[in-house]
């Protein structure tokens, strides 16, 4: 493992849960912005890979929701994550930039909220 990998692993391992969620949102946003650039460049394979990476993050966020402790908030987040997952699947098939932008906007709103909570 090189120095950068050790740093990244340590950085993730020492973050609190709220900060990890912010990092996951930021990662998904980064992959979707790259997917938009890939779509513009007509690199459809790269677009698909980056959308898949963002979807993987959303799947993980969805999977770790504590539905009992989270109550209505967890239910709303689950519905939103499921919507974004479906939206991205369709965006990937249709090569629809606006659908990708819609999900980026939702993720940015969620990210801003989590940033405020964890600040």
How would the blueprint of this fold be written?
Blueprint lengths: L2 H11 L3 H24 L3 H20 L3 H28 L2 H22 L1
Description of the molecule:
The structure is a single chain. This protein has about 120 residues and is an all-alpha fold. It has one domain: Flagellar protein FliS (Four Helix Bundle (Hemerythrin (Met), subunit A), Up-down Bundle), CATH 1.20.120. It has helices at about 5-15, 15-40, 45-65, 65-95, 95-119. It is globular.
Annotation keywords:
Four Helix Bundle (Hemerythrin (Met), subunit A), mainly alpha
Brief account:
The chain is mostly helical and 119 residues long. Helix content is 88%, strand content 0%.
Helical residue percent? over 70%
Low-confidence stretches: 10-14
Order of helices and strands: HHHHH
CATH architecture: Up-down Bundle
* Oligomer state of the chains in this structure: single chain
The averaged pLDDT comes out at 90
**Major beta-sheet overview:** none
